[in-house]
Amino acid sequence: MTQGGVVMGYGTVARLLHWIMALLILAMIPAGLTMVQEDLPRPVQDALFIFHKNTGSLLLVLVIVRIIWRAFHPAPPLPDHMPVAMRVAARTTHYGLYLAVLTMAVSGYSRVRLGGFPIEYLDAMGVPPLLSKSEPAADVAKAIHATVKYALISLIALHVAAASYHGLVRRDGVFGRMWPPVAPRQAAGSGSQR
Ligand code: HEM
Ligand code: HEM
């Protein structure tokens, strides 16, 4: 839907959460894939693990905050000219992304805590582990983490391709619903800013 010819966009909180999380996730995936390689020098592997576990725990908090925020601030309506199939594809991909990020963050956290391993920054802040050690449960969480990564990577590839198509080929204002990371003032006056 448009108001006065302006495509309605997301508000600043949704935009900031989106872009901060996108940057962190795009760093987490290569870090995760690299740190499990066997021939890696130990100091590099340790640094990657520390980065991955601690940034991942931050992402766990951010994805929960984002889902709660989203529950109270529905997405602004899509432009009228967008075909139904495209709307359905966008909505399905977005829900899939939320689910995949949440599953990755929960399974990663669980895998580490159930395995009895530290999460350095949380431990330094005195945050309790929340889960007690259990090797069989840790193995289940590990398998979930290793499997769901394929779904997350595929969804991100699809999502970035769709965003580029809207931004570069169709130029239909959909990319500007999320970019820039702070909602422009002009749109704030004329469109939904959720
Ligand atoms: C959105 C958040 C996350 C993403 C996208 C992510 C991504 C990944 C990826 C792609 C791998 C490589 C897996 C493989 O090739 O088998 C991995 C491994 C791993 N991740 Fe994450 N991760 C996330 C959150 C977390 C969190 C919160 C923790 C712990 C606090 C964590 C701990 C680990 C560990 C320990 C491994 C090594 C494999 C294992 O022993 O299970 N991850 N992660
Ligand atoms: C890498 C991790 C990323 C994740 C997990 C992610 C996730 C999401 C989610 C869940 C939404 C829906 C927001 C909502 O309705 O609540 C969204 C919207 C959007 N994302 Fe991403 N995103 C990522 C990266 C990117 C990148 C790299 C781009 C640009 C190239 C991008 C462009 C957009 C745009 C333009 C929208 C708004 C779509 C619309 O108006 O319907 N995203 N993203």
Task: Report a brief summary of the structure.
With 194 residues, the chain is mainly α. The chain has helices at residues 12-35, 42-72, 84-114, 120-124, 135-170, 185-190, and strands at residues 2-3, 6-7.
How many alpha or pi helices?
A: 6
**Beta strands, count:** 2
- Give helix and strand order, one letter per element, not per position: EEHHHHHH
Which small molecules are bound? protoporphyrin IX containing FE
C-alpha end-to-end distance = 14 Å
The Rg value, from CA coordinates, equals: 19 Å
User: What's the CATH H-level homologous superfamily?
Assistant: Transmembrane di-heme cytochromes, Chain C
Q: What percentage of amino acids are in beta strands?
A: under 5%
- Sheet bearing the most strands, described? 2 strands, antiparallel
Task: Give average pLDDT, whole number.
Answer: 94
Poorly predicted segments: 187-192
Strand order of the largest sheet: 1-2
Helix content: 55-70%
Number of domains: 1
* Helix-strand category: mainly alpha
Based on Cα principal axes, name the global outline. Answer: elongated
CATH class: Mainly Alpha
Q: What CATH architecture label applies?
A: Up-down Bundle
Task: Note down, in words, how this protein is organized.
By secondary structure, the chain is mainly α. The protein has one domain (7-187): Transmembrane di-heme cytochromes, Chain C (Fumarate Reductase Cytochrome B subunit, Up-down Bundle). Helices cover 69% and strands 2% of the residues. The protein is built from six helices and two strands. It has helices spanning 12-35, 42-72, 84-114, 120-124, 135-170, 185-190, and strands at residues 2-3, 6-7. It has a two-stranded antiparallel ribbon with strand order 1-2. A hairpin with a 2-residue loop joins β1 and β2 (6-7). α1 packs antiparallel against α2 and α2 packs across α3 (84-114). Residues 187-192 have low confidence and may be disordered.
